Fold this sequence. Notes:
The complex is a heterodimer. By secondary structure, chain A is mainly alpha-helical. Chain A has one domain. Chain A has 13 helices and two strands. In chain A, a hairpin with a 2-residue loop joins strand 1 and strand 2. The longest helix of chain B has 24 residues, at 338-361. Chain B is an alpha/beta fold. Chain A binds chain B through residues 3, 6-7, 10, 13-14, 112-113, 116, 121-123, 125, 127, 130-131, 134-135, 141-144, 146-147, 216-218, 220-223, 225-226, 257-258, 261-262, 265-266, 268-269, and chain B through 58-61, 63-64, 66-67, 100, 200, 226-231, 233-236, 238-240, 242-243, 245-246, 258-260, 262-263, 266-267, 269-272, 287-288, 290-291, 293, 295.
Amino acid sequence: MDTFLIHLLNSLLYASVLFLIAGGLSLIYGVMRIVNLAHGNLYAVGAYTTAWAVGRVLGGAPTLVLYALLPVGAVAAAALGAVLEPTLLRPLYKRAEEYQLLITFGLLLVLEDRIRVVWGPYPLAASALFEGPGSFAIGESIYPTYNLAVITVGGLAAAGLWAFVYKTKFGVILRATSQNMRMASALGVNVNRVYVQAFTLGCFMAGLGGAIIVPQQGAVLGMGVDALILAFVVVVIGGLGSLEGALLGALMVGVVREFGIAFFPEIELAVLYFMAAVVLLIRPAGLFGRT
Amino acid sequence: MGEVSRRDFLNSLGVTVGAAVAASAGAVGSVVGPSKAEAQVRGTIPDKPYKIGHMTFFTGAAAVLGEPSYKGHILAAEEINAQGGLLGKRKIETFKADEAAGTDANVKEMRRMKLSEGIDLFTGVISSGNTPALGPVAEELKLLTIFVDGCTDFLFDKAVPNPHYIFRITNMQSADGVIAAVATAMTWPKVSKIAHIHPDYSYGRNAFDHFKIAIEKLVPGTKVVYEGWPKLGTTDFTSHITNAIAAKPDLLASSVWGGDYIAMYKQGLRYDLFKKMKFTSMIAFGVAPHAIGKDHPEGVIGGIHSNYYWNYPPAGKWPLNDIFVKKYFDRWKEYPNFQSEGAYTTLYLLKQSIEKANKLIGGWPDDEAIITLLEGASIAGPAGYLHIRADIHQGYKDAVTGFSVNSPDYPFQILDPKRMITIPIRNITAPPGWPKGEPTSTYTWIEKTWPKVTKA
């Protein structure tokens, strides 16, 4: 029973971070119809920035200050997004989709290289934050307290995003633009502004995912591409462009991966792709996808 | 078969513990490092640069190994160039390539470097997925190649069983699993339930297979209670750790490495993983040394890919290592790892062979002459004596592993130089002439020739 509870918490931990990454990816696609291949690297920028900031002030700083630094990564990723959309993506909206794929793929490579130039080839850690709260007992086992914070942030992000999209005026504009950009524009919506806001918000989520998980996992080169692939598995299952889909997809991936590792460790790599393949066969647009 | 005691069998393997520098190879040629007076060079030497392609990981998670490889290479090249270059004339010019481009792209890059840049030597390479693809192409291109790593047994077992142009200087991969098992059997002979976590690719599979076959001989009756196979590049190990703990093993064996391993041990600490079981790694301390924090558990077996750790041979015992570590630190402000040592020794091995060939035939020696002198060559490097087996062109040096310890002298955790375990590599790998086997020749050799010990 204890072990089962730990498995469940592990699943939620994994799902929380995945939701933040995949949710941002889906939000951007839903509003702007852009598949941002560099999305995983914005997650990496979030992780590296937070680890770097924590590393800079470590040594004597009270722990509370360190925790206050967590969101730095999310803000950095959002700021980067706010710059990238108008400069790099906007000129390409009138062109065919392949151009957007090419430019975001190019961006992926550039960011990957920039991260190495700025932060070097060795992993960065912010593990003081992970160690700070220690562990608590679950039966005979112990569990890292920090993981609960990650799960909480993931949950709050999902709830906050839902409220934002469905309960605010901006959410209405966002959904209207998403459903019919021309009509929204004709009705007086400043589409350019909506786009940059949506893109920034999506990047903020990715950066937040990186920022809250970096104390537990560290920041390593290549983490962005890995995250991107997993985020695609999630949106394939949930449906690209759907936040509900991203949430359900992330939960499914979290649970299936956790119990896959427990019961079929030999095929850990295959299990997620198998699930995505099944969904593609049954519902090609994903569980919540618009057909 | 009569009684076989573990103690007697380990003695027969030549296992030594502590600060001994075991002599292994036969005749030793020259040593690494700048020589004082340049030996007399015979004949005229062209002064055009000697071009070397060095391929290693500059991006991606494996850059933690790639960066030290490149730094070791550059240090040696700078030293040789400061003396005027090879044979005092030919300056080394390095072309670097990013191994992270993928196997197909790496093969193309090797071709391009040979055909467009006209490189004289190809070196580097870390991944065991790449050497079996690059090896046959180097043979086809007639490109002199010294792989630093990419140490899979498969390369000389199957991919290129009769190499001519390609050499490799790190110990064969199977040594990792075998020495980890030997160290485990010596340290914790009572373990019986064993959990495994290995990256799911050729290296992890190889480490698992060889650890398993060797531990079955040395500690009969062990059983595997959990196997976890995370993807290479994974930094979330919560599930694997939970499952390993739930299986209640006596020991966890793991070949997870680089940034992956840093994440794994930090997460393991928060689950009390290391308090609940013993821990043996094949390669944990193979990363750039400062990447292992002081929070890492002490007294565990922290493998170094069975090749080299910077504080062994210990200070004062083996001047070549003292000098190398100091020069490396002065140049790069960090300590070397086994890739640094391998890449560094590679260039001096090349230099030695070129100088000997020149002494014999005069002028700049062609590749055939260099190859003849590389075959069976021996050199004293920072890690100890290195011997190149003439039949399979494989580097042989004592396999090493050690135990983690904190020292007030360093801001990171180190391996305890007083407790290093060394084994002559010839005693734990298949000998020349042994028939090719599955999954490796060394595996079938251990399976068929090692006795099962029956008492301590």
